[in-house]
Description:
The structure holds two protein chains of two kinds. Chain A is an alpha+beta fold. Chain A is 44% helix and 17% strand. Chain B has helices at 2-16, 69-77, 86-95, 120-132, 138-155, 159-172, 185-189, 193-203, 219-230, 282-293, 299-307, 338-354, 359-371, 380-393, 398-401, 403-409, 412-422, 436-443, and strands at residues 29-32, 38-43, 49-56, 99-104, 109-116, 209-215, 254-259, 265-273, 314-320, 325-334, 429-434, 448-453. Classes of the chains: A alpha+beta, B alpha+beta.
Amino acid sequence: MKxxxxxxxxxxxxxxxPLTAATKVEDIQSxxxxxxxxxxxxxxxxxxxxxxxxxxxxxxxxxxxGITGLSHFFEHMMFNGxxxxxxxxxxxxxxxxxxxxxxxxxxxxxxxxNWFPASALETIFILEADRIEHLSISxxxxxxxxxxxxxxxxxxxxxxxxxxxAEEVKATAFRAHPYSWSVIGHASDIENWNxxxxxxxxxxxxxxxxxxxxxxxxxxxxQVKKLAQKYFASIPAQPAPKAVRTIxxxxxxxxxxxxxxxxxxxxxxxxxxxxxxxKHQDYYALDILANILSSGDSSRxxxxxxxxxxxxxxxxxxxxxxxxxxxxxxxxxxxxxxSALKLEKAIIYELNQIIKHGVSKDELQKVxxxxxxxxxxxxxxxxxxxxxxxxxELYFGNYQTLFSASQKYQQVTIEDIQNVAKTYLIKSNRTxxxxxxxxxxxxxxx
Amino acid sequence: MxxxxxxxxxxxxxxxxxxxxxxKLPDYEKVTLDNGLTVYLMVQSExxxxxxxxxxxxxxxxxxxxxxxxxxxxxNIAFGTQKLTKSQLDEKLDFIGASFYSxxxxxxxxxxxxxxxxxxxxxxxxxxxxxxxxxxxxAEFDKYxxxxxxxxxxxxxxxxxxxxxxxNRLVFGESGYGSxxxxxxxxxxxxxxxxxxSHYKKWYQPSNSxxxxxxxxxxxxxxxxxxxxxxxWEDQKVLIKTPVRAVDKFTQAEVLLVNKEDAIETTFxxxxxxxxxxxxxxxxxxxxxxxxxxxxxxWLNDALRVNAGLTYGARSRFYSYSKGGSFSIxxxxxxxxxxxxxxxxxxxxxxxxxxxxDEKTLASAKAYVKGQFPPKFETSTxxxxxxxxxxxxxxxxxxxxxxxxxVNSLDIEKTKQLINQYFPKENLQFVLIGKADAIRDKxxxxxxxxxxxxxxxxxxxx
Lengths: 446, 462
C-alpha cells in the first residue's frame, strides 16, 4: 500500500500517477526473450522497493526414485556459488545492496524471490544471470548443504504433525505418480544423490525456456526490458524437459494408514481425495467447497465439529494448486477424549450432508464475498502481486486469469458444488491417515 | 574485481543519498475524546480495505496469580454481543469476508478486524458491541476453556512453539514479563467466567484504550462515527497497574533442560537481559544484531548452517517490551550434535566482544536494514499493528522517522560501546528441549542444570 515518502509525494503528484487506483490487467506488461524466458512486469511506485520472482517449472513431480527431494535440494544449491560470485557471495552481495531473498519448492515449482530497494535492480539481474548460466556445484558445498537439508527435514517432522502424517498419506494415495513422495524427499535419497545428478538437473530444468520471471515495484518497464535483454537474453535455451508420463491409476477403494508419534496429545486425522489438476473446469467449484467446509468459524466443519459437537479442536481443508491431478485434503485434530474414529465419522457425516442436500445460497455467497476481499488483500503488497501473478501464469497458463477469477467464482452454482462433492468426496476415492500416540501393535493382534 | 567495485559503489550511493527516500510514517491524526479514549486515524487508499483495532492496555503482566486471565478475557469478548450469539456474530463477519481476531500479549489486549471499506459502518458497530457490550455466555466460555486447556497440551508437541515460554520464565521470573500469556493447566482451571467479567470491568475503560483505524475512508465522516459510537463510553474507576519488576543482571549461568521423550533434535535458546522498546539506542542495537543473527549472512547462520551444516537456521533477536526485554540466540540441531552446536553458537557470539565489527560488514548491514525497512509498513494491516504497538508499548514515531538517520550515524566506535553496554556477556541463561538422557551429562558445563519434562504443567521446574 502507500507509506508516504516525503520526497516522493511531490514527484508522484507532478507526474500525475493514479495514487489510489487498484491494479488492473492493463497495468501489467509482459514480453518473451528469444531464449523463451517470459518476463512479467508491474510498475508500482507506492514504496521505493521492488522484487524479482523466478518461477522454475520444476518440482518433486519431475523426480524419480533415487533422486527424490532433488528439486528442493537444488533450491538450496542455487545459493552456493557460480562463476562471478563464488560461494556465499550471492547473499553477501545482495544484502550489501539492501536486498534479501528466499525460495520455496513445491510439488510443481521452485520459486526464488528477491526483495530489494529499487536502486539495486541491476545488481539483482547480474546475480541471477550468473547463477542461472554458470552455477558451480562443488563436492564440499554439496555435502555441507546435505546436512542443512537433513536438519530442515528433521525439524519439520519434530515440530509439525501435519508433515509427519502427510508424508504417509501421500505415499498411500499415490502409488505411481511422483506426488507420492514429499517435496523434501526420502532421507536415504538426501544422503546419497551425487554431483552428476545435480549437474544434469540444472542443465535440464534451469533453462530460460523453463522459467517465468515476475518483477513488481518501483521500476520502469523499459528499464526492466533493457536489463533483461542485457543479462538474461544470452543464456542459451535447452530442449524442453521430458513430460511427466505417469498418470495415477484410478483408486478403486478406500486406503488407510496409521502413524505412531508418542508426543501427540489427541489423534490427528488427514483425509485425502483425488481431484483433477488446477486447469480443470471443476477447480473453482472445488475451491469454493473447500472454503464452505472450513473458512471462518461459521464454516460447516468448524461450526459443527469445533463449536457445536466439540469433537474437534482444529479442522481445515487444503487444496494445493497443481499441474497434474492431486489431492483435496481435510485435516482435523480431535478434541479431548475423542477417538480418531468418532472424529472421522463426524467429518464424513458432514460431507455426506453436502452430497445429499447441497449447500445453501448464503454459504455460497459468503465464499464469493470472501474471494473479492481476499483479492484486495493479496494485491495490497508488491510481494503479493508478484507471487500471485507468477502463480497464475504457472498454474492457469496466463496471468490474465487472475483478473477474471472473481467472475469465474461468481459463476459457480449450488449444483456445481453438490456435483463436485458427489464426484470426488466419496469413500472409494479417499485415503485416511491417523496420527496418534498409541502403538499400532498389541498382543491380541491377528 | 569489476563486480566488487560495483558492489562498493552501490553501498556508497546508499550512504550518500539517504535523504531522497528517508522513510517517514504516513500522516495520521491522533485525538483524545472527552472520555479519555485515544483515537488514531490514518488514510491509506490503494485498495478498498480498512483495518480497525481496539487496544486495551492490559495483558499477562496484570494476571497475577491467574495466569491466562487477560488472554481468556480478550478471546471471550469476541464470543457474541448482547444482541448476537457467537454463531450469529461469526456468520455476520464471515459473510462479508471480514477477518477478525482477538488476543492479549504481555502488555495489551487487542480486537482487530480487516474488512472491505464498503462494510465500514456494520463492522465498526459489531466491533463496538463486542468491546462495550460483550455477551459473556457461560456455555461458550466453558467450551472455550476446554479447548484452551487442550491447546496448552498440544502446544508442547512442538518445541518451537513453547521454547520462549520457558525462556521468558527463566529470564524474567514468575511475574512481569515472565508471565505465561496462555496460562497453565492449573491457573486456567481456576479461571471462571466471573473472574473474566471482573477483569473486563477493571481494565476495559476508555482512558486505558485506543481505537485505531487505517485504510480507505473519509476522515471527517470517520471522526463523527467514532464520536457517536464510543463517546458515551465511561470510565469506571481509577486503575492501579501491577508494577513490572526490572531484570537485574544474572549472577550465575543457568540451564533449563526440558525432556521430550520422542525428540529427534534439540531446540535451544541462549540469552539474557535485553532492552526496552523506548531505548534510544534501539536502532543501532538492531543493526549490530542484524550482523550477529538477523539475516542470512549473519555470523550465527553462517557458522552454524553454511559452514558447519549443523542446522537449517540460526538467529538472534531482541524481544522488547515497555520496560525491559530479552536478548536470545535460537537454533536447533539433531540430538547427536547438540553440544557441538551450542559451543559453536557461543564461540560465534564471543566474536562480537573479542573482534568486534569491521567497516565493510557495518556498511553492508546498514544498507540491508534500510533496504528492508519500507516493506514493513506497506499495508493498512501493518500500519495498524504499528500504531497499536506505539500505544500499547508507549513509544512514538520518532523511532520510525529517525530510523535512517540513526542507522547512518552508527560508526565502529559506537558499535563497540553498544555491544559492551547491551549484549549480555556473562552468566548466560540456557533452555534446551530435547532427549534429556542423551545430553544431560554434557550440558552441566554451561551452568547449574534444572530438568523437567515437557509434559509437566507450566514452564518452570519450580
